[in-house]
Design brief:
The complex is a heterodimer of chains A (233) and B (174). Chain A is an all-alpha fold and 233 residues long. Chain A is built from eight helices and no strands. The longest helix of chain B has 23 residues. Classes of the chains: A mainly alpha (233), B mainly alpha (174).
Chain lengths: 233, 174
């Protein structure tokens, strides 16, 4: 058992993530402490053994037949084609849903662009009319892009799940519908990118963080509604 | 030499099968070590290759296909873990506050007894510690990369790694 307080330093030492002064501190300590020398050796041994573990493990059975069956008639999305983009194989049949999705995406872009412009022109003094969120809505705690990253990771995973679910439940290819969906997603993604860039340029702005969060929620809403429509089709 | 990736991007399923044969072991190894569940690892491996097929158009030749596929695999595995909890719950990958002493994981590791090899010991780690250990020590990801993938703080990532190493050393009698 190593000396109290040394274990963390020893771990960082083997990982070579300690500052020079701390490195010297560790080295001075282990010069006179056999227990910590043994711990250090044990950590190095463990690291080496883990790094030497086989990088490949053969599955107990061949998974290709099931993969091949699931690929089925799925086509690989190709750049520049009507079927390219994240929803190359998504089919929605309701014309009304197409309009609703297009309208939602357009609203996002319009509202966001106006909001950011207003914010920047007023030097951050103006009230930002965020779509679907009143000025009195619950404030986000975060105000910088770094602070927003954990929430962004959550959004990304949820978006990923929904995207995956839609791709799995495709019924048939419809080029026009695919185009509408992909267009909407590009609009929303562009809005998200601009919000991120704005927040990066203006850290410490809860309003911009709220805009970014709301844009993600709109994208999620779009994907959830698309999933629901696919379920009903 | 045939460019299998280019052929697969043009819709050649046979070419994609060759890519599968080349990379299945690596993908399965990641899934197995992260889940400690052979059955789930097989399911995830299938999901990963299906996702790779569907996203082939996004692959750019600037990066190695193996790197691209591995990153995709890590994302799928981590997403699967989160889908088991509430969608909006904070990531529990590393906020496991169960004390080591007397925890289920520690008991299982001790019960496994002497002679346990490292693979077995890794499989018995608590989920959060296991994920960070596998990504950092076996797969070679840096803390900053793991933090970005999982949404946890770098400090928390380091703490989980240190915890994993302590548990493993105790289980292996070192």
């Amino acid at each position: 058992m190593s000396c109290q307080g040394m274990e963390e330093l020893l771990n960082e030492y083997v990982d070579q993530t300690l500052a020079d002064d701390k490195c010297h501190e560790v080295e001075r300590h282990i010069d006179g402490c056999q227990s910590c020398r043994e711990t250090l050796a044990s950590l190095r041994s463990l690291r080496a053994e883990a790094a030497a573990l086989p990088k490949t493990i053969v599955p107990a059975r061949d998974l290709w037949p099931q993969i091949r069956a699931r690929i089925g008639t799925t086509t690989v999305a190709r750049e520049g084609s009507a079927g390219s983009g994240p929803f190359s194989v998504l089919a929605l049949r309701s014309a009304r849903s197409q309009w609703a999705l297009a309208a939602a995406a357009a609203m996002v872009l319009v509202v966001f662009s106006a909001a950011v412009t207003s914010y920047l022109l007023t030097g951050g003094a103006g009230v930002i009319p965020v779509s679907g969120v009143s000025a009195g809505a619950t404030s986000l705690v975060v105000a910088t892009l770094d602070e927003f990253r954990p929430a962004e990771a959550d959004y990304a995973l949820a978006i990923d799940e929904l995207t995956w679910a839609l791709e799995e439940r495709r019924d048939s290819l419809d080029a026009d519908t695919i185009t509408v969906i992909e267009t909407n997603l590009r609009v929303i993604d562009a809005a998200i990118r601009r919000a991120r860039a704005a927040l990066e340029d203006h850290p410490g702005s809860p309003k911009l963080a709220r805009i970014l969060s709301n844009n993600y929620r709109i994208k999620l809403d779009l994907l959830e509604r698309a999933n629901n429509l696919v379920e009903r089709s | 030499m045939i460019d299998l990736v280019a052929e697969a991007q043009r819709g050649d399923v046979d070419a994609f099968e060759q890519l599968y044969r080349q990379h299945a072991g690596r993908v399965y190894a990641l899934c197995l070590r992260m889940t400690a569940d052979p059955s789930r690892a097989e399911e995830l491996s299938q999901d990963i290759f299906l996702r790779a097929w569907q996203k082939l158009a996004t692959f750019r030749a600037e990066a190695a296909f193996s790197t691209w596929l591995h990153r995709l695999a890590v994302n799928v595995v981590l997403a699967d873990r989160r889908s088991q909890w509430k969608r909006w719950a904070r990531l529990v990958l590393v906020d496991d506050t169960t004390p080591f002493e007397g925890s289920g994981a520690a008991s299982r590791m001790k019960e496994a007894g002497a002679g346990m090899d490292l693979e077995r010991a890794i499989a018995l780690l608590p989920e959060g510690a296991r994920a960070v250990f596998v990504l950092h020590e076996v797969e070679g990801y840096r803390h900053a990369e793991i933090a970005e993938l999982t949404g946890i703080a770098v400090g928390t990532c380091k703490a989980q790694l240190h915890r994993a190493r302590r548990l493993l050393r105790e289980a292996l009698g070192r």
